[in-house]
Amino acid sequence: MSAKNMFLKPGFVRAPLQNGVGRYVCQLQRIVLKFCKSNGSSRGMRDFIEQDLVDFAKVNPGVVVYLKPRRHRGPVVVAEYLNGDRVWMSMSNKTHSEITKWVDVLRTQQGDNATTRLRKYQYTDYPSVQGPWTPFTHKLPELNTAELPDPAFGANNRLPMSATEQLRLMFEAQKLSGKSEDLKTAE
């Protein structure tokens, strides 16, 4: 474990299971836009409020939007989620389009997992020294540059014919010989 994880609060992933299978539940519960009416660093926030805030509120009726004007302070966005997480972002000197993108990011995520040291339900005293398994672990390196399909790398030329394939070929041969006998008797 690295030293930076020692000071983070431990917790498990609290993601809602299968969110979006039946219906999607937006995890953003409340968003607070704090800004100054006269400060120059709040210009992008004021433009966002004037142009896009009403449309954002109409499109996302489940999200409560608060505006909090503050004198001589920089613009801030605070997002609160259903799982109790709060994300605080400074929007100082950001443009209208950047603030629009950040608000959309806050709307689509499920909270701040960067401040939580993720724990697993399983634990072992002897972790693997071989590294994680991937689908390419035991593959030939020549496959990286090969033009596929290539008969040299095909699995069918190395394996003997399966019983199903043998039965299918026998049936087709019998069917063809049966048709030729039917043609002879018809003549």
From TrEMBL:
InterPro entries: Ribosomal_mL43, Ribosomal_mL43/mS25/NADH_DH, Thioredoxin-like_sf. Keywords: Mitochondrion, Ribonucleoprotein, Ribosomal protein. Pfam families: L51_S25_CI-B8. It comes from the Eukaryota. SUPFAM superfamilies: Thioredoxin-like. The keyword Ribosomal protein applies. Belongs to the mitochondrion-specific ribosomal protein mL43 family. This is Large ribosomal subunit protein mL43. It comes from Helicoverpa armigera. The lineage of its organism: Eukaryota, Metazoa, Ecdysozoa, Arthropoda, Hexapoda.
